[in-house]
Amino acid sequence: MVRFHPARRRALAFILLAGLGGCDLGPDYKRPGAEIPSAWRASRTTAAEAWPSGEWWRGFRSPELNALIDEARARNFDIAAAIARIRQADAEVRIAGAPLLPTLGGTAGASYQRLGTGSFSASSVSNPERGGKPYFDLHQYSLIGNASYEVDFWGHNAAALESAKASAVFSRYDQAVVALTVLTDVATTWFTALDLKDRLEIAKQNLADAEQTLAVIQGRLAAGTASALDVAQQAALVAGVRATIPNFANQLEQEIIALGVLVGRPPEAVRVRPGTLVALARPPVYPGLPSQLLARRPDVAEVEAELVAANANIKVARAAFFPTVPLTGSAGFENTAIATLFGPGATILSGTAAITQPIFDGGTLRGQLEQARGRYDELLADYRKAIVQAFTDVETALAAVRYAADQVAAQAQAVATARRAADIARAQLAVGTVDVTTVLTVETTLYTDLDLLAQARLAQFLGLLSLYQALGGGWTQPRGPIPEQFPGLRPGRIVGGISLPVGDTIR
Predict the structure, then answer these.
(1) From the centroid of its chain, how far is CA 421?
(2) Residue 348 and residue 374 in one domain
(3) SS3 106
(4) Strand order in 347-353's β-sheet?
(5) Is residue 69 part of a domain?
(6) In whole angstroms, how far apart are CA 341 and each of 136, 139, 260, 349?
(7) Per-residue DSSP letters for 170-181?
(8) Are both 69 and 164 inside the same structural domain?
(9) What's the whole-number mean pLDDT along residues 246-275?
(10) CA-CA-CA-CA torsion for 398, 400, 402, 406, nearest 10 degrees?
(11) pLDDT of residue 507
């Protein structure tokens, strides 16, 4: 039978305990099932697939919008805060991964002591030949290294690292959600400003037409073919139209001011000149199969990342019921002289191992486990809700785009009809073959239809924005398990080698 020296047996025991680390108590994460529709409810036909691109806003062909969004990506405060949260989460990965590695340290020291051997007086010290030497000096030098390691036998530390990695992935998805929200907010604000500019121009044109009609009626009054009541009625219409102009101008200014916080600048620094919605392109966008949607929604992915982290926290809570095995050791040299510090007799070697087992804690560990399970169930409900909400968002946006387009076409026809009626009425008024009431009616109808057409165009563009956002804005989830989707998430390495979502930077 082979016999080992006691020191060797201790070393083998240390290696065995270390090798046993990493047992997983479970439960292993499995993606929850979800009800996936086979087709879109609001889709008319099997339209060609056209998912949004990563720079979907360029499809509107608005240089001003492109510039605003580029500025928002670089300067928006919410995006910057989300990026900072990524850095914090990556630091948590480093912290959580540290217990899986040994802790090493070292100390170097020197000490001096004067020890007395008998009577001691100032004269004996100053004159050793008379009184002898009543003391001796003791010098001590040391150089010691130490190491400690907790054997992760039950996978407690590994589960904590898994949770931290999932939280770091969540922070990336959260940044993608924030960025998409900010960019669609910029586009929404810009389109609203363009719509208000269009409605302001419509009001000004209507005011000019009403004033021209008023001049005709005043001329007829002077000729005796119109009454003062006719003049008063048209003048009231002119005043009413004029009163709408300051309101439109105020709303337009408010939208431009609101762009400031979105692009990270004070309102005084925002310099934009709104054009018209009529000049913008309407890029086509069609969703593919509903089964493809979940991989394109960063909000669904971020909730699942939280779910993965919560599952790992259940493992942490379960492992807390079992013993911990800390190992410590030190080795070094200690002697009374530097010249002999590294001699054979100066060697110091020590090691300890312990097992700590919770016995009674008043229900703390059980409460922590139930809390972790409750948190998982809460996030599971959030995850399933996020899936249903994702399909709901797409269906709502598809319906909005479809019916807004129909409304724009119908309202444009109404405007054409109202304009022909207004032209005929004004012509007849000029020759005195129609009364003022008819002119008032057709002018009011034309103004209302023009204003409704502008609002319908805005609804169409906002529907497109909603559809872009509902389809994920060009975002695609990386493949693989959530904790391992970004190879930079390793202990001791922060963010290196990963591809961050749009708008992300690392300092």
Answers:
(1) 53
(2) no
(3) strand
(4) 103-116, 135-151, 325-335, 347-353
(5) yes
(6) 20, 12, 69, 14
(7) HHHHHHHHHHHH
(8) yes
(9) 92
(10) 180
(11) 30
Beta strands in 305-444 (DSSP E): 325-335, 347-353
Residue 135 forms beta bridges with which residues?
A: 116
Q: Where are the alpha helices (DSSP H) in 127-155?
A: 128-131
Query: Residue 371: inside a domain, yes or no?
Result: yes
Q: How buried is residue 58: exposed, middle or buried, by Cβ count under 10 Å (0-12/13-18/19+)?
A: middle
Is 11 inside any structural domain? no
Q: Assess whether 175 and 278 both reside in one domain.
A: yes
Cα gap 495→350, rounded to integer Å: 39
Torsion angle of alpha carbons 259, 261, 267, 269, nearest 10°?
Answer: -90
CATH code of the domain in which 180 resides: 1.20.1600.10
Q: Do residues 188 and 255 touch, judged by C-beta distance below 8 A? A: no
d(CA 476, CA 292) in angstroms, rounded, equals 10
Could you write out the DSSP letters of every residue in 123-191?
HHHH-HHHH---EEEEEEEEEEEEEEEEE-TTSHHHHHHHHHHHHHHHHHHHHHHHHHHHHHHHHHHHH
Structure-block tokens of residue 82: 């989300």
Phi, psi torsion values for 142, nearest 5 degrees: -145, 150
How far apart, in whole angstroms, are the C-alpha atoms of residue 184 and residue 401?
Answer: 16
- Name the DSSP class of 145: E
Say if CB 200 and CB 276 are below 8 A apart. Answer: no
Q: How many CB atoms lie within 10 A of CB 189?
A: 20
State how beta strands 103-116 and 135-151 pair.
Answer: antiparallel
Q: How far apart are CA 144 and CA 127, in angstroms?
A: 40
| H helix or E strand, kind and range, residue 67 | helix 63-75
Residue 243's nearest CA partner among 193, 196, 205, 207 is 207
124 domain residue, yes or no: yes
Angle at 198 between CA 192 and CA 203, to 5 degrees: 125
Q: What are phi and psi of 111, to 5 degrees?
A: -135, 155
pLDDT 10s digits, 215-242: 988 988 888 888 899 899 889 989 999 9
- pLDDT tens sequence across 395-453: 999 999 999 999 999 999 999 999 999 999 988 888 878 888 888 889 899 999 999 99
- In this model, does residue 125 exceed pLDDT 70? no
- Contact by Cβ (8 Å): 272, 64: yes
Which domain does 134 fall in, by range?
A: 103-151+323-356
What 3-state class would DSSP assign to 119? coil
Give the SS3 label for residue 217.
helix
Type of residue found at 355: I
Omega of the bond prior to 487 within 30 degrees of 0, cis?
no
Tokens linked to 23: 């047992």
Neighbours of 362 (CB within 10 A): 7
Strand, helix or coil at 225? coil
Q: Which two structure tokens, joined as six digits, stand for 326?
A: 């800390």
| Helix 228-263 × helix 63-75 angle, to 10° | 40
Q: Is there a single domain that holds both residue 143 and residue 176?
A: no
The rounded distance, in Å, linking the Cα atoms of 417 and 412 is 9
